[in-house]
Amino acid sequence: MAQGSIEVYESEGRTFPPSDEFAAAALADDRSLYDQADADYEAFWASQARDLLSWSKDFTSVLQWDLPFAKWFEDGELNVSENCLDRHVAAGLGDKVAFHWEGEPGDTRTISYSELLAEVERFANVMKGLGLSKGDRIAIYMPMIPELPIAMLACTRIGVAHSVIFGGFSPDAITDRCEDAEARLIITADAGYRRGEPSALKPNVDAALTAGAPSVENVIVVDRCGTDPAMVEGRDHWWHDLMANAEPSCPPEPMGAEQLLYLLYTSGTTAKPKGIMHTTGGYLTQVAFTHKYVFDLKPETDVYWCAADIGWVTGHSYIVYGPLTNGCTSVMYEGTPDTPRPNERSGDRASWNKDRLWDIVERYGVTQLYTAPTAIRTFMKWGDEWPARRDLSSLRVLGTVGEPINPEAWMWYHDNIGGNSCPIVDTWWQTETGGHMITPLPGVTTTKPGTATTPIPGVYAEVVDDHGNPVEVGGGYLTITRPWPSMLRGIWGDPQRYLDTYWAAYEGRYFAGDGARVDEDGYIWLLGRVDDVMNVSGHRISTAEVESALVDHPAVAEAAVVGATDDITGQAIVGYVILIGSVEASEELREEVRQHVGTKLGPTARPKAVFLVPDLPKTRSGKIMRRLLRDVADGRDLGDTTTLADPDVVAAIREGAAESDEE
Ligand code: PRX
Q1: CA dihedral over 483, 294, 390, 19, signed as positive or negative
Q2: Strands 368-371, 397-401: pairing kind
């Protein structure tokens, strides 16, 4: 393992100077956690599980591994909400702030551990009152308001599994996910604030339930924006009405360690999203462990902020479950980073203050900031003057997640936000892994701009070639060689797909779907997805999903979608569309087709550009040659809207197709 080499780093043909932090980290060199794990990794995770969590019944079995099915701590019992709340209150930390919550319009709420517990108990009773009990599934479709973690924790109190659906998703996504999970309840809000305006949620739930999902019996609605949505008699209930009538006390029910905790749907290479299953004891162990060590947590004094959305796994593990298990104080923010600060709003977006994030860091004295490369690149583009206006000296650790970070963005984050002295933790993991897998540990690992470095203690990864042979130095595919506590336990309702997707490519190994390179120091450089999944601002979107939304438009005969390189979002979605014969191409139609995807799948999945083409390049077996389309898209200005049937795109595609045909 490479330690201590702190010369100038070279990456992508550029060099990056060392900083004080690299030197400091190299000196610390405390490898004890790695050594313990390597000596006996089951014993290592068992001791973490006991140290970090409270169990109502201790476990005797650590790991049962029947590839690809793992059971961790199986005969142990615990309750997640008790670990996140009751035990901290019992330890005298009831008045400690759990969340400094800030709404997008600037309204704030400070919620202590005892207040959070009281709300969770009440809401658990609300769900019980609606007939829900252990083993049921419910859906949550909410903005980033405190009621969201309250609802999640209330589920864990009584053994109900939640499926959080990102608030940016469309009605179709709600219908599909509720049908797949047979959800009995949807918890939502009338709307949430998004870029200065209420963005409606409840009407999307209504549309979803008109289209299907008959298992949903009740809808609970938080009145966030006062938009007065239509309420269906008997089915829809206001959160505040139910809470006003709920009993205050609801003891936590002990759960088996392998009790289903939640489902979180993620895109695959086919249009049908996969319900990733996470269970209780192993998941909580690994998220608590990583939250503590990766962010170098000092729970007494830290104010930690993960600026993700709870609709994604990052928010599940590192806004809700990890930080609360560790009893730390967090910031939770409703809006996007580029929304105006209070009292400075103007209709003109260009004049908004671009220091919302830095303002929050300064006001709360944030010590750890965890965000995505796409956000960092946006801040870079806005210019150094915005962070420079604020005092960011409280920051100690900076985190990044969601996609590979380019060394330039890494250095900018390090110098302009971290004042050249905060370690950067580039954390590689996935919805499926539940918690961090590959990341530096502050004070232990010497970092380099652009690499997630090495696996955490107790996690074992290898880069392999096409034949599944480990690559010592060089490029290949990222695999995980041993089970880990927070690993997915399967795909809801589809064990075969679980096996085929993750365990079939390389025997005995979990295949992550990412390309990676190992350098001379043994550090792992993530290179992005190798399958047909795009990564847009850190969100995984499958080409197949967007293609089916495109062909869903009545004028579209065939469609191919690729992710083109994009400076800000990592990848940008580009669609190539063949219209049905009788339809005349027009600029309006092109825009309409583009918007259609937004309506079907939500704005994140709306293509940045749609090209109308007469033909698509295909292999002899009829498979669309996405690689070629990607090259074509990479060579174009995606803002260019001058094309209809776009002669040069077509020429390029044809040329390329002809060449590859000859290969
Ligand atoms: O391609 C990798 C990329 O995001 C994928 C996982 O996406 P998702 O399940 O939505 O979870 C995102 C938050 C954990 C991975 O397969 N990815 C995530 N983190 C990194 C990354 N790529 C490079 N570096 C990272 N730090």
Answers
A1: negative
A2: parallel
**Ligand 1 atom with the shortest distance to the CA of 400:** 26
Three-class SS state of 438: strand
Q: Which of 511, 618, 21 is nearest to 269 (CA)?
A: 511
What is the rounded distance in angstroms from the CA atom of residue 169 to the CA atom of residue 171? 7
| DSSP state at residue 643 | -
pLDDT in the model for residue 604: 87
What is the percent of the chain where pLDDT is above 70? Answer: 88
User: Residue 649 above 60 pLDDT?
Assistant: no
Reading phi first (left if > 0) and then psi (alpha if -120 to 50, else beta), residue 621 is in alpha
Q: Nearest residue CA, atom 26 of ligand 1?
A: 428
Higher pLDDT, 338 or 6: 338
Query: For 4-42, how does the pLDDT look when each residue is reduced to its tens digit (9 = 90+)?
Result: 333 445 554 455 544 444 444 444 557 889 999 999 999
Q: Which residues pair with 558 in a beta bridge?
A: 578
Helix (H/G/I), strand (E/B), else coil: 401: strand
Instruction: Write the residue with the smallest CA distance to atom 8 of ligand 1.
Output: 430
Residue 343 tokens read as 């009292």
Measured CA distances, 103 to 109, 208, 314, 334, 337 (Å): 8, 27, 19, 5, 12
533 lines ligand 1 (CB under 6 A): no
Q: How many of the other CB atoms lie within 10 Å of CB of 626?
A: 18
Spatial separation of the C-alpha atoms in residues 347 and 443, rounded to whole Å: 45
Q: Name residue 16's amino acid.
A: F
* The pTM of the whole model exceeds 0.70: yes
